[in-house]
Amino acid sequence: MKKRMLFVIFGVFLMASAVFAAPGQQQPKERKPGDKYKIALSNNFMGNDWRQNMIWVTRQVMAKSPYKEKVDLTIVNTDNNPEAQSASIDAMIRQGYDAIVIDCSSPRGLNPVIDRAVKAGIVVVTFDQIADNPNSWNIESDWNYTAEISAKFIAEALGGKGNIVMDRGLPGAPVSLTLYNVAMDIFKQYPDIKVVSEFDGMYAEGPAEQGAAAAITANSKIDVVYSQGYCASIGNAFLNAKRPLPVITGGSYMNDLKFAIENNNPSLHWFSNLTGIGAIAIQTAIDILEGNPPTEKHILLKDAVFYSTRPDLGSKIGVTLHPVKEGYFPDRPPSFAYPVLPSDFPVQLTMDEVVIRQ
């Protein structure tokens, strides 16, 4: 097996020496021997491989010791809007959960229901797409850094001049807004870089390919597509249109890395968001319930790794770019990504355990 980089999390497992005093802090609940924590995971979107993998990995982790002995987990998927997700969380509040971990449909749209949960004595941890709420603990990957490296890579690959198509991701999602806004601020520093088209890739293969195809129809020259997900789908749109492949930046599923290798595409692939983040959120909720909360309410995961067919550009943008082949496992499914958990997490999963099975 190829050597993998260790993923280091700052702040998740650094515990305070005394109970952390903060607005909305819950005191540890009394538990009888053998009692399990009743924890719910609220997820607002299942339209891509990452979310499905996140749910699978969470279930796999919770089926192992020590979690199977201490957690009674419920996972609820809702429509991708604050109203539907809030109604579902209100039901969880009435059902008396000890903790609710939330992948949010909106950074602020869930604030009222989060506040109601905290007032009811429930620990709330938001993760991945986090809430802008001081009463919840909020865990996210460093998407500012991912967007910055991607935009700088593009500027170097273009020599500061060219036409860009922007994928806006999932409408309203906090991560999408960060990936878009940070990159756009960097592109504004280059007068000869022009954004000629935009589309909502929805973190899904079909919409990404359709959005790229529409941009191809509307523009005779495209030098870059800044994706928030599936590079291979976007590349296929260009191949189908018999157009030259642009520089593509985006995710690092096996299908994306395979496409880059087979087509020698000048691409950048970020590995920025571990699918084990749902399990990390549950561990954090347990720490809080047991009186050992993290020292910070906002927890930033420093786990980004970048793969590229142009690793030589890394020195120009101040980051190590690993050759694409280092992250590619040809015997794995197209939507596979690994590892899924930081190396110091209490439970680890093998490659085979993270492959979704019916």
Describe the structure.
There is one protein chain. The chain is of the alpha/beta class and about 350 residues long. It has two domains: about 170 residues, Response regulator (Rossmann fold, 3-Layer(aba) Sandwich), CATH 3.40.50; about 130 residues, Rossmann fold (3-Layer(aba) Sandwich), CATH 3.40.50. The strands form two sheets. It has a seven-stranded mixed sheet with strand order 1-12-6-5-4-2-3, sandwiched between helices. The protein has a seven-stranded mixed sheet with strand order 8-7-9-10-11-13-14, with helices on both faces. It is globular, with a radius of gyration of 21 Å. The two termini are about 25 Å apart. The N terminus is likely disordered.
Structural descriptors:
single chain; 358 residues; alpha/beta; Rossmann fold; 2 domains; seven-stranded mixed β-sheet; 14 strands; 19% strand; globular
What is this structure's SSE topology?
Layout: E1 8-9, E2 37-43, H1 49-62, H2 67-70, E3 71-77, H3 82-94, E4 99-103, H4 111-119, E5 123-127, E6 137-141, H5 143-158, E7 162-167, H6 174-187, E8 193-199, H7 205-218, E9 224-226, H8 231-240, E10 247-250, H9 254-263, E11 268-271, H10 277-289, E12 298-302, E13 305-308, H11 314-317, E14 321-323
Parallel strand pairs: 2-3, 2-4, 4-5, 5-6, 6-12, 7-8, 7-9, 9-10, 10-11, 13-14
Antiparallel strand pairs: 1-12, 11-13
Helix pairs in contact: 3-4, 5-6, 7-8, 8-9
